[in-house]
Amino acid sequence: MSDSDDNDRPEEGPQVRVSLKLASGVGDPSLEVPSAPIAVPSDIGRKGLSAVVNHLLGRSVPGDDDGDDDGNGNDDDSSTASNRPLSFEFIVANNRLLRKGVEKEARQHGLSLEEAIVITYFPTSGVPELSGEGETVPDWVSCLASASTNHSETMVFSGCYDGTIHIYRKRNNDDNESCLIKISSATAATGPIKAMAATTYKDQKMIASASLDHSLNLHTHDSNNGLQLYGVCTVAESDVMQAVSSLDFTATSSSSHLLLASGDANGTISIWNFDAGEQDFVATEAKKQKSSSGQKAASSKRELNATICMERAHAQTISGISWGNHHHRNQTDNITSHSQLISGSWDHSIKVWDVEKQNCLLTLNGSRVVACLDTSYHSEGVVATGHPDCTIRLWDVRVDSNTSKPSSVIMDHTFRPSHKAWVSDVKWSPSNAYQLASTSHDGTVKVWDIRSSNPLSTVRAFGKEEKGLCLLWDSSPSQQRKQPKHETIFAGGSDCIIKQLQL
């Protein structure tokens, strides 16, 4: 993974002094080592420094022939848990992971070698492993969404190319690994479902689904009635409903409303306001139906017109839209949670919108089609995008609503190409501010730390000829006491099976 890892064997030669400091976010004080400066080879890299830390901790250090430096932290099973060596990551400067020799990294950042170089370290995150898979569904799994209840129960919803939605309950098995228990399925559209969003609103699970048949439907789900159609989203009579390609829910500051943002194939952004009292729904013309008794009964379906419609928001298909995941993590319920919207499009641009004023606050033009988009749970305005050129890009699009000016330096950071085909989905970790996952038409799932341009790990989740299409990163509390949060990445693709990657 690192260019300098071949130079990590301790050899006599030039040395530098370093002071090792445990990262402040690490909750295990037993991993702290003395901060007094020590001399190490000047070209020592991550693997060598891990050996130094393990030695100072009194943990056994693997031999020189113990595998590659892949960050797995998997060592001899004969070692006990208390003295088994760990794999660590290191930061020398600028919050970037060490991927060179220490001296080279220090010189690159203008650090003086006359003084001890302060190096922050923390344990490497676990490598995702395929821990199971769901049952085969009739067609490609194109999108995934989830909603949790107050009882920490997580429901997972998958949308498929045959127009069906499949509902699963997430459970942890005896080994504290996630497994999906299928509850039911229902036909939601006549064409492929291409976008989904789910949320829990007033103790009710709400699911929005959009299909290539140009339908945008809102559903509810409960254990007694399964998936039920709640309403149909429509546009003005003079317009034709376009195929919606991206969706996202948010709650407003008022407890009686729920907003849904949609982006469609024509580049239009629409906002749908779902009132808890249902007064915003209009009944269509009643259709007369014969009842079993021969009497005529009237039935109607509920429709909801968009409250805001921003036509030509983008020149081409809107492939990603988000109110900002940080509101979900922080349980934000104020005016800022629904005033700004971030969108990405095939027209190569990322835009930030003031929804109430229907005004574009910021436009960032890239060089490639934006195929997918997700926003950080930990930092407002930090966006990850995936592209057909096999790359992932990071953007900082924070904007001051009062001045309509960027509130910080705009960032456009491109990871080194690692995927071999179109990047179809990216998802941020809800629990780790620095990690995100990606999947691609090359059939792999990769986990990244944004402080490095190379992936932390790569998992072959799908067969050689299969495509990865969608991801869901779930960070639910463990069902077992005294256990950490349970991290699972769910992946769907062209093999019609939801894969489960355990972290």
TrEMBL record:
One GO location term (cellular component): nucleolus
PANTHER family listed in its UniProt record: RIBOSOME BIOGENESIS PROTEIN WDR12, WD40 REPEAT PROTEIN 12, 37
Entry keywords, A to Z: Kinase, Repeat, Transferase, WD repeat
Species name: Nitzschia inconspicua
Region (Disordered): 1-44, 57-83
GO molecular function, one term: kinase activity
Domain NLE residue range list: 30-101
WD repeats: 341-363, 416-458
Start-end of Acidic residues biased regions: 63-78
One Pfam entry name: NLE
Localization annotation: Nucleus, Nucleolus
PROSITE patterns on file: WD_REPEATS_1, WD_REPEATS_2, WD_REPEATS_REGION
Protein name: Myosin heavy-chain kinase
